[in-house]
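Render this sequence as a predicted structure.
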Amino acid sequence: MNSFGPPATSETAGRDLEASLQRAGFYPLLVSDVVNDALDGRDCLSHLVHLETHFDRNEVHRHITVLVLTDDMLVVTHVDDQQLDDAGEQVMAQVSTESVPVSQIRSVVLSCTYSQPQDYKPSDPVRELTLAIAWSGSQRLDVVPADCADPACEADHGYTGTVALEDIGLRISAEADGLQAVQDAKAFARALRAVSANVTAGTGHAGASLRFPALGQRAGRGHHRR
């Protein structure tokens, strides 16, 4: 169950961000410098750190996505590494940052999965969560072969698919990342919605008037789509 505490100060939120980067352990000094440079002096209101490790044959690849919310911007930082030699002595880090005005965010989509919904209780945790944020109008197309209701049909029905408005999507599961990582993602989405609504209402900056859920102290690993 989410807990709501007193509004976090920018100093506290900044310390929590640094602690999350240290816990993620993915070139924390480099990632911290990149994130702070992208913030350009703005104060952190809320953040989400998402670390993923995947395997490609004999190679291990990792990348990290850091979302930082300020009172007027969503700062997206992505860092991944690449091994340049078989011994792993030569490694290159690729860094990208994007600063998105909160006023340009078009949608914040939160998709949640619950186990045994027939026995649902308000205290039941979300087992898996996908957070999708759109601001530029980019569309993701998922296409699969089309079929029909006749199991004996061998005709070619072409393809069918869905189009999703999405600039970034993060998928986090309780099994892979832990329940706290899922709660962190929910808390960040709630903070982003609150700031977006405040800006849309014409009140200018969100600032300290908003009360955000306290984020957990653990960074999550999961699936990342860009």
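Summary. The longest strand covers residues 46-56. The chain has one domain: 10-225.
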